[in-house]
UniProtKB/TrEMBL annotation:
<dbReference type="InterPro" id="IPR050959">
    <property type="entry name" value="MarA-like"/>
</dbReference>
<dbReference type="InterPro" id="IPR011256">
    <property type="entry name" value="Reg_factor_effector_dom_sf"/>
</dbReference>
<dbReference type="InterPro" id="IPR029442">
    <property type="entry name" value="GyrI-like"/>
</dbReference>
<feature type="domain" description="HTH araC/xylS-type">
    <location>
        <begin position="8"/>
        <end position="106"/>
    </location>
</feature>
<dbReference type="InterPro" id="IPR020449">
    <property type="entry name" value="Tscrpt_reg_AraC-type_HTH"/>
</dbReference>
<dbReference type="InterPro" id="IPR009057">
    <property type="entry name" value="Homeodomain-like_sf"/>
</dbReference>
<dbReference type="Pfam" id="PF12833">
    <property type="entry name" value="HTH_18"/>
</dbReference>
<dbReference type="InterPro" id="IPR018060">
    <property type="entry name" value="HTH_AraC"/>
</dbReference>
<dbReference type="Pfam" id="PF06445">
    <property type="entry name" value="GyrI-like"/>
</dbReference>
<keyword id="KW-0238">DNA-binding</keyword>
<dbReference type="GO" id="GO:0043565">
    <property type="term" value="F:sequence-specific DNA binding"/>
</dbReference>
<dbReference type="GO" id="GO:0003700">
    <property type="term" value="F:DNA-binding transcription factor activity"/>
</dbReference>
<protein>
    <submittedName>
        <fullName>Transcriptional regulator</fullName>
    </submittedName>
</protein>
<dbReference type="InterPro" id="IPR018062">
    <property type="entry name" value="HTH_AraC-typ_CS"/>
</dbReference>
<keyword id="KW-0804">Transcription</keyword>
<keyword id="KW-0805">Transcription regulation</keyword>
<dbReference type="InterPro" id="IPR010499">
    <property type="entry name" value="AraC_E-bd"/>
</dbReference>
Amino acid sequence: MDMLKGMNQALNYIEENLDNTIDLNEVATRAFCSEYQFKRLFAFLSGITISEYIRRRRLTLAALELKDSQVKIIDIALKYGYQSPDAFSRAFQNYHGVTPSVSRKPQQTVKAYPRMTFQLTIQGGNEMNYRIVEKAAFKVVGVKYEVEMVDEILSPTYENMITSISDAKMSELESFSNHEPSGIVHVSANYSESSDGKATFNQYIGAVTTEENDDYSTLEVPALTWAIFEVEGDWLQVEKHWQRIYSEWLPTSSYELIEGGPEILASKDHKSEIWVSIKKK
């Protein structure tokens, strides 16, 4: 409940300061977690970054205020953090599909992005099987992708990443595996968000090894503490379990995410392990 209360306090702070500078560190403090963990939790649970949420809320309020013909467009632009009418007009048109001046016309349609709230949903008490382990440093050798998330869409998509690797190359990558987690692994690392609402991270599809390899990209993973979750079932079950890690396990545990730390998925024969790098709060 503290986490639920904190997340809503953070959203209240955002709502009260949409016409001011919003300090994301202060937002995270109100949610009782680090700024990095708040960004990851928010993006994972909502599908958009916190910066993009703030942008949409500001443009929603701006559209409402533009209906008052007595208010100057430049005053609304400055109120919501835009340094010039041109910058505001571009952002407004990209979101609403019309310019600020056109939006003032009677019966002109604009978009509205409602404020979010987090609510507690009580569901069946499904157990989560996990273990906390410390692992020495290792390497992930494989194909690397630079992934960008904009408006809830990944580019490239996971499907495109996987299908771009031939069966022969996938078999070669699997042969490099000599360390847990074994077999082909999918690794996300170096997650970050920009002020314009974009999220980026590196995605590796390959194998965990202790050996050097010059033919593929290499991610050096330092010695870390890991929370390792066991999942049985297809990809839909993996997705549900991953969401439970963020929405249920992390907020109530004594651990938090390592900033930019890797997350690993290893699957074979409908049995999977999700590895999340963590540290004590």
